[in-house]
Amino acid sequence: MISAELKVATPISPAANSIGLAGEHFAAATLYLLAGAAGLVWAAPQLAGGAYLSPHVAGITHLFTLGWLTMTIFGALCQLLPVALGAPVRSTRVAHASFWTFAPGVGVFATGLATGSVALHHAGICLVAAGVLLAVGNVAASLPRARARDATWAGVALALTFLTSTLVLGILLLHNQHTGYLGAARLRVLATHLHVAIVGWVLIMIVAVSHRLLPMFLLARGADTRWTPRALALLAVGVGFLAAGLMLGARVLTWAGALLLQGGVACFLRQAYGFYRARLRKQLDVGMRFAGTALGFLAVSAVLGPAVLVRGAALPRLATVYVVFGLGAVVLYVIGFFYKIVPLLAWTAHFRGRMGREPVPTVAQLYSGRLAYAQLALMALGVATLAAGIASGAAAVARSGAVLFFGGVLVFVTQLARIALGRAVRAAAVSPREAAA
Ligand code: HEM
């Protein structure tokens, strides 16, 4: 049976009063993506050497996970809540306060992790925790006012819960860096932390948001939408089982969790396939190609999961490749959504008021399609080459992969700068009706 909910995908119209809020988050997130990609070039040989527990790797990881992913999600929620759920963020003041604690906090925290500085650890974790708790509280307070309590709503609520658990586990791990109190349990807590974070926080949020946005971006009609609730349920229960199994050292629970997670990823991939297949315009734009590539990486990571569970402790490089594909997937997916959301916001800010009075560019003319495809090639090849270098223990190959990825990020930054300034790539003016389309 096809849900009536998404038979017709309606186009998005940005919430004008939260464009600035989203914009500040997106700008800071982009700087952290750039810093993370540069750091990856430096640390790639360590990853190829199997040193995934190195403090440098932990610092750089959080430039991506907190700086790029979490910051982007916080900014996107400022737009998504009013537009998709009909519930504006409860307080824009609190949202700004969250930004001004979280944004500097990530840099201080990541530097503290990388250098082992206790002062920076403490300052960083205070700022990061304040930023996360303010954002979680603000979004949670907005949810009761939502018009629709659908899969997106439930997914956002679940993801917020997992982010809070991520923070608690992260603080335990940070404390362990000074005291070593976790002993041999460190690896199990670390594995729990990273799954709760990447799957529970980021992937569940992606599944929830995609339920609304993929059909809009793809102009998909009539897709069967029952796979999203299944994906959300399996991922949430799976993370719970996996976490319990890892923390208690109970193999049966851990395996049950891993299998549920595989089912959840499979349902999400099935849902995304349904939306892609039901699209009206057959030609895919670059944003949707980024998302499609990311889904491919997600499938690779899911396939590697059981192998990591069997041999992970003995083969640290295999575990690293598994995380690289998983993180690579969510990073690329978010970039794909950036290509859909940010030009639209910039267009609204620069040109909406001028429409009908003078020629304005289309949203797609705000960036170069050719450069965006070059960026996709560089980043996708970068992730694959980095993974190959780590798998084979070849430091030079891993570093080449990181350099390709960094090249892709540089292209992205130039595109975003152009979009933010509202400079059309082709000067050709279009009629107001074409611009609106
Ligand atoms: C919310 C605040 C967070 C805190 C306080 C925190 C803290 C930490 C700490 C202290 C470590 C190092 C553990 C060790 O080496 O013993 C770590 C590792 C890690 N964290 Fe987080 N984390 C946070 C959020 C996140 C998020 C949101 C993600 C992913 C979306 C994430 C992913 C990871 C990964 C993948 C590692 C392993 C890095 C490595 O191989 O060294 N963390 N975290």
Structural class: mainly alpha
Separation of termini?
32 Å
Tally of separate helices: 13
Number of strands: 0
Question: Summed up, what is this model?
Answer:
This protein is mostly helical and 437 residues long.
Q: Secondary structure elements and their pairing?
A:
Elements: H1 19-48, H2 55-85, H3 92-115, H4 118-142, H5 151-179, H6 186-218, H7 227-248, H8 251-277, H9 286-311, H10 316-351, H11 369-392, H12 395-421, H13 432-436
Bound molecules: protoporphyrin IX containing FE (HEM).
Structural write-up:
The model is unreliable at 1-11 and 427-437 (pLDDT under 50). It contains 13 helices and no strands. The protein has a domain at 15-147. The chain is mainly alpha-helical and 437 residues long. Helix 1 runs antiparallel to helix 2. The protein binds protoporphyrin IX containing FE. Protoporphyrin IX containing FE binds next to helix 2, helix 4, helix 5 and helix 6.
Protein traits:
437 residues, mainly alpha, 13 helices, 78% helix, disordered N terminus, disordered C terminus, binds protoporphyrin IX containing FE
